[in-house]
């Protein structure tokens, strides 16, 4: 069963084509990596899936519903986390979680908050101001927020960026555990290919707004004849490097 | 619209107010300063017998009601700016929140701010100048409601402009309403304005509201024409400003600027 179906999705900003007619499907309960160099169109694609950017053309179906016509119903079962999108620093940790919990209309919110903050080891920080948290604590708070509504689709934009390797590794393990327990579908972006190989069932490579390749990490490593996904990434992103030169 | 989502944003702002002195000051500071300034001026004018009949009532009433208009506009604009300053727009708009719910929360926040300002100003003016705002009677209520509505319209208008042009336009949140004040016949009748300015004054609902309030004070009767004109203009502007806000929001989504709004 497909959770996401994207057909001929295009986004043009004036003369620049950020996303160029891409089509893909995401299966239920899988972790799919959306990979590509900077400016490839990953963030634009994710923001179109969240209805933050209006596509120039194409169709987005989530849970078999048209996003344009069923925004409220779809977004109530979706969530998002990115270290680049911080929660308000001038609110306490519990105030942030209460606010977003209410926005998702969660029942028994306090219990849900306790459950998640204990899972992520930030329960003792509930009365702390969000602005005083470390990067690792903020990531775990962001993930707690992202799981408040028990989403069926979770969009994670570089969730381990700017984390030290120990915290990043713990975060990945937590995400795998959550995915296993809740069978949530995850769309994941990262520049850390080792992490992608570890967590993703399938990856979609995009570059210059177009899908370059699609498959399981193992399949792609084999197909390109490289030793790991990092080399596959370098191979695919070569084109962008040429632009840079 | 779902109440739980409106409440979520309302509570989010109240969390800030309960521990932020500058935010509390933002509600009370200017209204109190203006009340003191205009109150003492009214007393001076009354003693010098310059203003004539009911000078305290007219000036103090005007400054209190202008304060309510200002608060209702600023509550909407500042609540939006809080989300921009904290770069929180993306977080809230990836939830099922609707624009109408977002605006409703700012309107309710405005009502709370207005309630607080109203109580403090009414109390202070009674203590300092023996001026009882409630002496205006029930006829003043429809005008106050029209005033609040106009404040919200102005708040949504400035928010729409900030949405389009970013925080470089945030000065509008604090200063836009001042542009309207000279034309709104707040402290003087429209007839005091130069002839060529008078038609401009009549495009603002606030002009009919303040003219109507003065009529209530002087005659004790409700001036129906002023009330109807204020209502009619408010309805027209409300429809236009909602269309404008929706248009600007759609533009921001089309240009992909929601996350980059600063």
Question: What is the share of helical residues of chain A?
Answer: 25-40%
Strand order of the largest sheet of chain A: 6-7-8-3-9-10
Strand-pairing-aware structural class of chain A: alpha/beta
| Mean pLDDT, all residues of chain B | 88
State the total count of DSSP E strands of chain B: 0
Could you walk me through the main structural features you see in this protein, from its secondary elements to its overall organization?
- The complex is a heterodimer of chains A (245) and B (262).
- Chain A is of the alpha/beta class and 245 residues long.
- Chain A has helices at residues 42-49, 71-75, 93-103, 109-119, 135-147, 165-182, 193-199, 217-224, 229-244; strands at 2-13, 16-27, 31-35, 57-62, 65-66, 78-81, 153-157, 185-189, 202-207, 210-215.
- Chain A has a domain at 88-150.
- Helices cover 40% and strands 26% of the residues of chain A.
- In chain A, the strands form two sheets. A six-stranded mixed beta sheet of chain A has the order 6-7-8-3-9-10, with helices on both faces. In chain A, strands 2-1-4-5 form a four-stranded antiparallel beta sheet, with helices on one face.
- The longest helix of chain A has 18 residues, at 165-182.
- By secondary structure, chain B is an all-alpha fold.
- Chain B has one domain (3-255).
- Chain B contains ten helices and no strands.
- The mean pLDDT of chain B is 88.
- At the A-B interface, helix 2, strand 6 and helix 3 of A face helix 1, helix 4 and helix 10 of B.
């Amino acid at each position: 069963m497909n959770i996401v179906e994207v057909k001929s999705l295009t986004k043009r900003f004036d003369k620049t084509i950020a996303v160029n007619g891409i089509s893909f499907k995401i299966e239920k309960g899988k972790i799919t990596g959306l990979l590509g160099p900077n400016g490839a169109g990953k963030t634009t694609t994710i923001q179109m899936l969240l209805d933050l950017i209006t596509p120039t053309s194409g169709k987005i179906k989530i849970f078999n519903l048209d996003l344009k016509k069923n925004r409220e119903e779809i977004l109530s079962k979706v969530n998002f986390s990115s270290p680049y999108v911080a929660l308000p620093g001038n609110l306490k940790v519990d105030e942030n979680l209460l606010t977003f919990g209410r926005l998702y209309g969660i029942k028994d919110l306090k219990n849900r908050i306790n459950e998640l903050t204990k899972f992520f080891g930030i329960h003792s920080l509930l009365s702390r101001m969000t602005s005083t948290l470390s990067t690792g604590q903020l990531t775990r708070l962001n993930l707690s927020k992202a799981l408040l509504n028990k989403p069926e689709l979770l969009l994670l934009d570089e969730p381990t960026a700017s984390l030290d390797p120990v915290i990043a590794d713990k975060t990945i393990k937590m995400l795998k555990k959550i995915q296993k327990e809740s069978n949530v579908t995850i769309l994941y972006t990262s520049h850390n290919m080792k992490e992608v190989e570890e967590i993703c069932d399938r990856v979609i490579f995009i570059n210059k707004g177009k899908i370059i390749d699609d498959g399981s990490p193992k399949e792609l490593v084999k197909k390109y004849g490289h030793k790991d996904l990092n080399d596959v990434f370098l191979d695919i992103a070569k084109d962008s490097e040429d632009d840079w030169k | 619209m779902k109440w739980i989502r409106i409440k979520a944003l309302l509570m989010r702002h109240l969390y800030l107010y309960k521990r932020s002195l500058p935010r509390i000051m933002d509600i009370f500071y200017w209204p109190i300063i203006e009340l003191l300034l205009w109150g003492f001026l009214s007393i001076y004018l009354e003693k010098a017998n310059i203003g004539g009949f009911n000078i305290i009532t007219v000036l103090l009433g005007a400054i209190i009601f202008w304060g309510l208009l200002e608060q209702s506009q600023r509550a909407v604009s500042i609540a939006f700016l809080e989300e921009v300053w904290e770069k929180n727009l993306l977080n809230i708009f990836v939830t099922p929140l609707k624009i109408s719910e977002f605006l409703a929360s700012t309107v309710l926040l405005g009502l709370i701010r207005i309630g607080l300002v109203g109580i403090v100003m009414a109390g202070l003016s009674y203590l300092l100048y023996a001026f009882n705002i409630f002496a205006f009677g029930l006829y003043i209520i429809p005008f106050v409601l029209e005033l609040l509505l106009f404040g919200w319209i102005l708040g949504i208008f400035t928010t729409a402009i900030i949405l389009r042009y970013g925080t470089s336009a945030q000065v509008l949140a604090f200063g836009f309403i001042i542009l309207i004040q000279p034309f709104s016949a707040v402290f003087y009748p429209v007839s005091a304005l130069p002839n060529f300015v008078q038609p401009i004054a009549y495009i603002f609902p606030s002009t009919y509201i303040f003219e109507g309030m003065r009529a209530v004070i002087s005659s004790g009767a409700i001036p129906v024409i002023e009330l109807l004109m204020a209502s009619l203009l408010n309805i027209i502007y409300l429809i236009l400003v909602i269309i404008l806000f929706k248009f600007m929001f759609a533009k921001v989504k089309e240009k992909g600027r929601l996350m980059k709004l600063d």
